[in-house]
Amino acid sequence: MKIFKLVTYLFFLAATTVVAQQEKGIVGKNNWLDNWTEFKPSQITYREPTQIISGNISEDTKLNKRDTYLLVGSVFVTNNATLTIEPGTVILADYTSKASLTISKGAKIIAEGTETDPIVFSSNRSMKYPGDWGGIVLLGNAPSNKFGNGSVANLYYQLNPANYAHVNFGGDDVCSNSGVLKYVRIEYAGKRIRGAGYLNGLLMAGVGNETSINNVMVSYCAGDAFEIWGGEVSINKAVSYKTSSTDFKLNYGAQCKLNNSLAIRSPYISSSEGSRCLKVLSYDRKEEVDFSKKGTSLIATNLTLLNDSETLKDDIDKGLVNEAVFIGKDASLDMKTTVISGFNPAVILDDDIVIGQESLEQIQFSNMYFNNCNGNIFEENNINNDDLENWYGNAAFFNVYSKSSNVETFIDIQNERRPDYRLRINKIIATNIDDIND
């Protein structure tokens, strides 16, 4: 690889980051995971359902906290209707009918819980397992890079032909609004569908930037926790906990901002299909996308990506630990003030990416904290990463490398009920100036 002309570029980067905040990983003056999250959902007993939700919701509908709902089959919110869910409402998804909830293009969901009264979607089984039900799908009218508009028809079990019109996504409205998800938990989703793989905890396809996604936790999902196809969406304070597949996956020209969010992986739960914390792609097959349209772009700030492995070396030797981040060709990533701890290695770049200054300026890592990883940044199928280490290891990027245990690195990860995954630096809790001023 040619020697990069770094001087001008690095001087500019240094000048713009001197005043940047040095706090890394998830931040907050308080532990924002308190109250609304649940890290032991198998120990929670919900009330028996008092109402059934099935078929299509074609007019404005409200779900009330006083009732517990049973979601049966593939339920679609259609006809520009709005589904409103009160704080504290519990919706149990039927295992037998492979239940799922889809907000069709033009419709909305207003699921706005509170910190002390979150909205919960979970399995109706007494013994719950990842993949018990389908999950939530948001479909919007924002653009993707696919030819024409997209469809998610293959994700449904025995889809009624009458519902094919309700599974399309994409258009020209980057500001389209699919509603609000705030203080919401999605548990045990990711049902496997024959011929289509696994569903996701939360799939957002063609979702526009007027949609609000904050404080959403996906736990024990058999598929991807958060998946984004096209659209333009900002996600804040998202949590993926012990997902079997990828925690955050972007594809088909998604334009996304992911901020102050957490992914906790377990090597003993992850699937054999190559699960990661973050996967950034622009396509699965080149022939399905229009290269005159935007490729996928992610700005990721203050993430904590943690592999919860008790014996990291043994788990790596057994093939149970993968990289935390994978970046595909024609996708861009700007990641900063993020902690990556305990992976094999931290980052892998697709081997179709031609490594050079132009490509690496589209894949940025700055103010990072790489901890206890078996290597940092590599090109796929290439064990020689000297050029990448020289590039990203330059002092102008302010990246930090460490070999500390998770217990030493984070505030309190051994608290099973209320863990605190904020970074411990010299026994000072990492905070964010915006939170202090709130």
UniProtKB/TrEMBL annotation:
Residues 1-20 form the signal peptide. It comes from the Bacteria. The keyword Signal applies. The keyword Signal applies. Keywords: Signal. PANTHER family: LIPL48, SECRETED PROTEIN. This is T9SS C-terminal target domain-containing protein.
